[in-house]
Amino acid sequence: MTSLTMLAPVNGNVDVMNEQACDFTCFDPKVLSFIDTLSNTLLKDNAAKTYPELVALGFWLRQSNLKKIQGFAPEGIVKPLGWVLHFTPANVDTMFIYSWICSLLMGNNNVIRVATKSTELRECLLNILNQLFAQPEFVQLGKRNLFVHYHKQSDYSAKLSLKADARVIWGGDESVNGIRQLPCQPRCRDISFADRYSACVINGAQLTNKNLSKLAQFLWQDTHPHGQLACSSPRLIYWLGDTALQRKLFQQVNHLAAQNGQLINALNDHLVTSQLLKTTGKAAEPIIQEAVAVIPVTCFDDNWLDWHLGGGYFLLLPINSLEDIASASTAKLQTLSYWGLEQQALVKFAQQPSIQGIDRVVPIGRALDFSPVWDGYNLFEQLSRLNVVE
Amino acid sequence: MNNGHNPLLAEYLSSFEELMSADVYGLEQDKKTALLIPVLNKLHQLHQSQNTQYRHIVNQQTAEQQKMDELPYLAVRLFKHLNLKSIPDAEVFKTLQSSGTTSQTPATIYLDKATSARQSKILVKILQQRIGKQRLPMLIIDSPDILKKPEFSARAAGIQGLAFFGRDHTYALDQNMQPNWPVIEAFCQKYAEQPVLIFGFTFMVWLYFIEMLHLSGKRIELPKGVVIHSGGWKKLIDQQVDNDTFKQRLLETTGISRCFNFYGMAEQVGSIFVECEKGHLHAPVFADVLIRDPFTLKPCDIGEQGLVQVLSALPSSYPGHSLLTEDLGVLKGVDDCPCGAKGKYFAINGRLPKTEVRGCSDTHVEAIT
Q1: H helices within B51-153, ranges in order?
Q2: How far is A105 from chain B (nearest CA, A)?
């Protein structure tokens, strides 16, 4: 198991890493034209259209959105770093594209190590990339944007690390630490994304029979993709105030989950997680335990996340004020999505130095929207060199 | 936690005694339930009083249940994550580890002397229904090394449990899990005309014994032998070997026509579900089985496939008397198996597909280790 498989382009070769030059500038028109074609293909391709994750990606890659995120790019003389090596996560099928696109927009050459598990969604995405790389105008771009796979136990991570100018490492904590131990060039930059979890806060006082189904839809939209295993999907719900419509909201979410087609092992997994949580004495009987499960807890412990198996499982923690979140969350909390709260109140709240975690605060329904600013990093800045001319 | 003076334990033991005097397969389901339910209710109360984790899970539910399907149950996977025991550490006599052939994390089961003795006693009572009371010359389809390993695996426990039925215990495999032909041939020669007992784990009996005989063109003759085997069918199903194929090939290679599979698990050693002559798994009086819809966990009707819940009257040292397994099975009938045994009979169809824990943590770390 020591061979490297070239997933896209099919005739690619990692030996090109020996060539240092970059072909593109930041937000290069040739790159933008490629991304535009990719976006159009994703939104029109019959196979791609069946995956909400790929449709979301297609929309994210549209010119209008790229213009918006260009605002995050540094100003002045900005140059690519060279070769960026991406170690992408196994839990989010499309993440390797987001991280790659950010790097490509800065003009870098890229090698993307796609994680072990091959899924239909991933196959579909790689097929599309191969189609594009075969087009004459994108052949050159393809030569220096290589999607590879190799076995974990092979020494390719070590070999490729030696040639990288930056490593983007998505992982669990252990994977990140493991890869960072591999020798690299002295000036190589490591951008690490370690284990995180996410939560949402719902203001019960704002919930009505009228707006309830919209909220359920947004909440499920943040939960369902990638089986709730994306770091930014909420696993914990902070409930503020009035609980009159709480059960009804979760029944509605359950209804949406059932419509999506409940997996045969989902309920048994929910049962396992619920019983494990209950042994701590900090969890009550689940409010609902069918296609999704919601279990009230009296506090929150990071370690419980080891028991969380995704698939629509929520811990529900009642709070009396936003300030309670500070003590009922940890440094690993990445995204706090919100509903029924004023942005102003959240800005004030997020600024508190006592909050160790929380790198993103977004409305519920947008938890999975990727941004070049992620986990507190600006990827555009991290993946480019800023020149000073005086 | 002093079991010696626990009135709940005393109550459990006295209701268990009544079960002991009942016919293993002779009671109709309603009569059996009337005997078994009080025992299970007592175990439920006992574990609540002795085990905080169990008490938290069942929410201090004290009402006695009248129906089997109303008894609380634990997900069997809990034993992989937690050390569930209802006895003080000083009373732990033996810990059992599930074999873990397909699962990475083994389950750990804590036994005190009393539970362990009860398990052996009941195993004997159940298997005597098939093997008889006489100790038979015994061929074990395993390597003698299995008992030498420091951790007490479910495989070793199974062999040790069954060894009681045998004499002249002969191990058919060598250290490399290859058939030890001289030993096997000597055994066959010595006992050719006598009843003998052959025991092993299902996939090992198939792969290392029946298939090895078949592939090497050998044939042995033990026409009065009886084969007892247990353990997962997954590896065999992957090779498209079903129970009929298993029995047919066994007959062809050994001349043995009596072959009984049993369904059991490390989490409920002793109260096993043994196949009858008609090929159905039967619940003995000490145990029961329920099938639950995997999408609702509501009880299924006869003929509907679902998750198998197993109930056992035996475990007092750990809360394993009512477990929802991750096996898929189907109830075939109640009280009317053509073999004559009463109570429920069922079949195991396979396992629940495994949850892919695709968490961030499985991206890459092995590259370094």
Answers
A1: 52-57, 78-81, 113-131
A2: 25
